[in-house]
Write a structure and sequence with these properties.
five-stranded mixed β-sheet, three-stranded antiparallel β-sheet, single chain, 214 residues, wza like fold, alpha+beta, Outer membrane lipoprotein wza fold like
């Protein structure tokens, strides 16, 4: 049955006329937008929630491992340079390269040998020490810096306070481990002038990179 709208002034004598097709079309489009926005909001929240689980554990990170109702197994551990951490009963566990969700599942599976029911395990990253880079030479604050997110070479120099007056800005070296190897390294020549002018990419830093400003 067609929808109708009233018009006219006063209670008596009001007449009704059918809504135009244009108004019906506008109402339909608005309803679709409301539904779409609601669904998009749910997608964003799911992405944000899953994003919190995407951090990959690395060497030197500090983890708090909690086993429900078992204080003897719950403890704070350091991830060793070999990427493993040690826990009572199950011994060494590979942690580096795994997300907290993956490590939780691995520890839970290993503990099943000692539990009648599936244990509840929670892992909290207390300190992020693996996501670091080093900057040396003619910057105001040389040293070791933790990357909270992706950082470029120019952002790294900014974190270190910028160049000193004696810096050779166009002769910067970036030393990078090849494929995570501690033995093989590559050296990339970097020019501050070329990056600013767009002739060279503003390189995204990897964990373990070392910037040298002569």
């Amino acid at each position: 049955m067609a929808q109708e709208e009233t018009f006219g002034s006063g209670h008596y004598g009001q007449r009704k006329r059918p809504l135009s097709m244009k108004k019906l079309l506008v109402a339909f489009v608005l309803s679709l937008l409301v539904v779409h926005c609601g669904q998009a909001g749910h997608r964003i929240s799911r992405q944000d929630k899953s994003g919190e689980q995407d951090y990959l554990i690395g060497p030197e990170d500090v983890l708090e491992i909690q086993v429900w109702k078992n204080a003897d197994l719950s403890r704070v551990v350091n991830v060793r340079p070999d990427g493993k951490c040690s826990l009572p009963l199950i011994g060494d566990v590979q942690a580096a390269g795994l997300s907290t969700v993956q490590l939780t599942e691995q520890i839970t599976e290993k503990l099943l040998a000692y539990y009648q029911e599936r244990p509840q395990v929670v892992i909290i990253v207390q300190q992020v020490n693996s996501n670091v880079f080093y900057i040396l030479g003619e910057v105001r604050n040389p040293g070791r810096y933790i990357m909270k997110g992706g950082a470029t070479i120019l952002q790294g120099i900014t974190l270190a306070g910028g160049f000193t007056d004696f810096a050779s800005r166009n002769k910067i070296s970036l030393i990078r481990r090849e494929n995570g190897s501690n033995n093989k390294e590559s050296r990339i020549k970097v020019s501050y002038k070329d990056i600013v002018s767009g002739k060279q990419d503003n390189i995204l830093l990897n964990p373990g990179d070392t910037i040298i400003v002569p």
